[in-house]
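URGENT: need a sanity check before tomorrow's submission.

F., can you look over the DUF2220 domain-containing protein record below? I want to be sure the sequence and structure line up before it goes out.
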Amino acid sequence: MKQLHPAWLVELHRQWFAARGKRLDGKSRAFSRDWHRLLDDAGITSAEDVATAEREAGKLHDAGKIILARHRYRRHLIERLSLPVSSEAWLRDLFTTAAPEDLRQQSLAHVREASTRSHPRFPDTWREWLDSVGTAFEAGRHVRPLAWNRPGLVLQMLDLTFGLTARKWPEETLIREASVEMGHESKHLERSRRIAEACLASMFLRPTSLAALGILGSQPRIEIAGELVLHLPDGDALKIDGFKGCYHLTTDLLRAVKATTPAKRILTVENTKTTLRRIASLNADKETLILACAYPTQGLQRLIELLPSELPIHHFGDTDPAGFQILSKLRQAIAPRPVAPFLMHRRERSEPRPLTTYDRGILPALLVDPWLEDVRTQLESISASNDKGDFEQETLGRPELREWPFYRIHPAAELPAAGSRSPDRPGD
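Structure tokens as predicted:
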């Protein structure tokens, strides 16, 4: 099949689009390329093809579409090709490439349309999120995972996010059931899970999984760090012996009949991207089994069910309303096993951190939650001040100790005698 445009022009468009075609800001200088390098990039090497390309370029030069810079004395030799700013629209139209401003306006139209939808559960949060997305798009900025130059994706994800948050899902709704319930094919939500959860995090201003909405993945999954043995029905044992790494268990949890560990305690950690990995890189005595818990998933519940009931459980989470909500959910999910909060005391900061609309929406229920009696004063302080304080786990800094309780500020930490050198500091 004959190519619609010359190969060198196709390559020029590719390089121009990569450098400028997706940008909103205007350029004052022509886009310029070395002629011989452009031909090489386009795969034009034979003398006949080079001569043809020169004739084609000469015609476009005469038509004022491009500018050819020729050798000073040997005028038949082309040295550089320039695309004037005034010709960029011509090149874009030639290859039917959408202008960045058109893409942005399409995305903004999708945002405006979505803002007209009445959200039945989180109307203020929905409106504020779309306002922030629209403001960012107007300024030419992306809002992860939404990009102003991908209007199709913006439309798809706004619709999916609304569908996920507009209803209260029954506990343990399977992900494929949820996908069908929203009018998609059964595997759509599975394929879109990562970007959907990124949209939820953007909307609620904190990491939010599908499990937090009551939607379960197709397999139980749990991220762990520590020593663990899963005992299988046929007598085999699957050993996880990576106390300085993080591992994922899925279908093995369903097959196991029990789990054993040399650890003396379990520590569940909300933040898996930083805090869990920092603690996992220490834990030198292997006495703590560390489990991810941004939400008490089916996988987490299953693993705790398999582990010995005498192992004490501690939960390390953020100290904002959503963090305490996770603590409540965890306690309910694995009752009657008790869960002690770990370093979940409210910390003030020099500049107050006001509550979000979402925080204010869930706080009243948390204040009367019977599963949060022991942290009631923390919640009352947050409510009275309208200030979340220094609530993120990361603001505690890196853990300093190589074994439990990992942080020197914890009451269980044994401080070294004055003048002595602590063996627990990483790097000593």
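My own read: The chain is about 40% helix and 15% strand. The longest strand covers residues 237-249. If you see anything odd, call me.
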